[in-house]
Amino acid sequence: MRERAGFYAVATLAVVLLFLAMRGFDSRGHWNPAREVEPARFETVDGEQRIVLRAGPSGHFFFQAEANGAPVRFMVDTGASYVTLTESDAERAGLRFSPEDFTLRFETANGAVYAAGGTLDELRIGDAVIRTLAVVVVPDDKLGGSLFGVNGLNRFDRRETTRDELVLTVEAAPQG
Hints:
- By secondary structure, the protein is α+β, with helices and mostly antiparallel strands.
- The protein has 2 domains: about 1-30; about 35-170, Acid Proteases (Cathepsin D, subunit A, domain 1), CATH 2.40.70.
- About 20% of the residues lie in helices and about 40% in strands.
- The chain is built from 3 helices and 11 strands.
- The protein has helices spanning about 1-20, 85-90, 150-155; strands at about 40-45, 50-55, 60-65, 70-75, 85, 105-110, 110-125, 130-140, 145-150, 160, 165-170.
- Strands 3, 4, 5, 6, 7, 8 and 9 form a 7-stranded mixed beta sheet that branches. Strands 1-2-11-10 form a 4-stranded antiparallel beta sheet, with no helix packed on it.
- A hairpin with a 2-residue loop joins strand 3 and strand 4.
- The chain starts with a helix and ends in a 5-residue tail after the last strand.
- It comes from Parvularcula dongshanensis.
């Protein structure tokens, strides 16, 4: 009886570990713990537009947006003061910089980083549009992906966070 209980315990543990490990693989079979679990959901409720983001396996919130019409994948980062683009994402959005433009010094968890300042004419997240958004741009080798920082979050009327969801709300424009 004890042998059978031990077997079931080991088998159950193996299934649980396999399930948890599989959650970190993307559709091509590559390990990617930061992959997006599901796309953003867009709702209009009681005259408000809501963007609902589900946390990925790492607990971070990701979304796809259009920066000046170019697709950019963002990770929400409340520790970043500004929306921060990688240089390649900025270039796709039509923002180009020379090495001399990277003069803004930021202290990060990984040390000092030099960035260039810029402005996105338009950032579109579903039907929500943020116009004239200040951004900073960092070289690709200094950042693993673009970040949606506090100045972007503050453009929404409200944000609510639980362990599994982040809801960004903006009052819908009156119809008429």
